[in-house]
Amino acid sequence: MTLTATPLPLLSDNYAWVLASAGETAIVDPAEAGPVIAWCEAHKVTPAKILLTHHHADHIDGVPDLVARYGCKVVGAKADAHRLPPLDQAVAEGDTVTVGDASATVIDTPGHTVGHISLYFAKDGILVSADTLFTLGCGRVIEGTM
User: Fold this and answer.
1) Rg, C-alpha atoms of the chain
2) Are 109 and 80 in contact (CB under 8 A)?
3) How many CA atoms are closer than 13 Å to the CA of 55, on its beta-carbon side?
4) Res. 82: pLDDT tops 90
5) Which of the 8 DSSP states describes residue 88?
6) Using CA atoms, how far apart are residues 21 and 101, in angstroms rounded to an integer?
């Protein structure tokens, strides 16, 4: 296993995930920048990437400040590019996303939003499913269907 995943509480009921592998760090779904910046400063980490699962504010509102501060590259769904912050890498089903030497397969998981994606780091046994899959059930279906 080469990838680590650390939850970072945000807002009153949400999380970003800090993924790290081989000296590279990515932040998944930063709803706000302040706590992410504080965590990065405390751990002396400069995130290289921001990985976005979907366009909702509680997953993207911290992106502009993090990009401005760290120059992170932003990765998100090509199908939802018009609703996401500007993307450096637009991905679709079957594409690969890397964090250091760990790689994930992009899985289209519409339902919560039509452009929702999940990232599966098979070698590391880590699935980033955001609001599509929760413990004991699926996420709230808003735009798509089951």
Assistant:
1) 14
2) no
3) 18
4) yes
5) S
6) 6
